User: Fold this.
Amino acid sequence: MTSSSAIYPSRHQVVVTSPGDVSPSALRAVADGLARPVADVAEAIFRAPTVLVDDLDADTATALDRLLASLGLESRVAPHGEAPPDVTYFDVAVQVQDVARIATVTESLADFLGVSAQRAFGLLATPPGVVLGGVGAAAVESLARRLGEGALVSRAPSDAGPFDLHLAPDTSVPAWLQARLREKQQTLRPGWLPLRLSYAEARSLWSSLGREGGIRLVNRALMRWDLVLTGEATPTSELLAWLEERFGIPSTVAPRVLAQPPLALAEACDVAQARQRLDEARALGLSVEREPSGFGRAGIELLAARDASRLQAVLSRFGLSQTVRIPSLIVADLSDLEARVLAHELAAAGARTRFVESTTPSGEMT
Assistant:
């Protein structure tokens, strides 16, 4: 045989195109079969499309492709050396909109990431709910499909920015960072600090922080926004029509809404929606502010309870004292998601509650 194809048989590569429905156990099986660390295989799959294995003969490539499909992955066989397409990598955040589905969303996220349910809930409860970084669009779509209804999945290019800072309560902030914040005229306090850092500035800051607990950089493109009515307004016909069209607030209810600031007119808007509606509201004479969604903290006051045993069961599940007076403050400081989940569970048990401002001091930190 003299043809080059006979002397050099064609070679192939297997390209993962999507995580599909792969499970953590399947990822481990793939890693074991390829004799590669699980973390390396998981990174390759989440950054799909990516070459998983190269320089295979046709039969081996086809067999591997079929094996991956049986494990829930989406893949294809391509010619050896074929360059993968240019890919934009994303950071991903999840915001739970329907707390009635929190258990399902948490379990699905835990299964997708291969972490405990406790760790998955912690990611969801830490605003803005960043759960993945530097992944391909296919991974984002796979995650959204698995989480289903009630979870809002947002993505933004990992290097887009701008980037802000988030400080957890009781965080110890290094002196050099305190000085940087003063330079940017930022008060040292828990919560969101709008620094508007570029990607390069954010990387430099993060490398300096190392493993400082309670301090995170936040990609602003992943944030959602609440529109909060901050002052009373006269219910004109034009204003009532706008509230009903934009937010679905009936004209019979709107006058009471306009008389009870502060009150959220809309929640979890993307930046374009928030900007448009803020401009419209101010053009109509409304006192409205845009606030980061999910970054607030709250306590819960118990106002009434119909069934003491069901109430105690919920309190016990959340690790709270089962001996309470009514009315009383049953918890002083929770993240936004924790507070919404607890309030939902208490309502399902026949209790009536209200959110109150967190009693954790929000002034100067050390």
Notes: Confidence is low (pLDDT under 50) at residues 1-8. The chain is about 40% helix and 25% strand. Residues 303 and 327 are 5 Å apart (CA to CA).
